[in-house]
Amino acid sequence: MFVSVRKYKLRRGSMAKWADRVREGFLPMLREMPGFRGYHLLDGGPDVLIAITLFDHRDQALESNERAADWVRNNVLEFVIGLPEVMGGDTMVSETRGEG
Description:
about 35% helix; single chain; alpha+beta; globular; about 30% strand; Alpha-Beta Plaits
């Protein structure tokens, strides 16, 4: 599994609007991509969002990064300060516990 992490610095007060737009527009697009495994949007502290995407393979994750960049430009660019930090890598250890 390959994980991509993107860290965004946002204008004050825009985190909730960003999250709403992700739910409405970005997640449906991700769900349709081959190899999609998961997505998490984290509150990274004051005016910082961290987006984590999980895909089966590196090439699929890199494609999602391209789509994410396009989506940000077309849907939430007014909230962003500067360029996001983008990193990723192949999973070395992973465990997820089911809800219950």
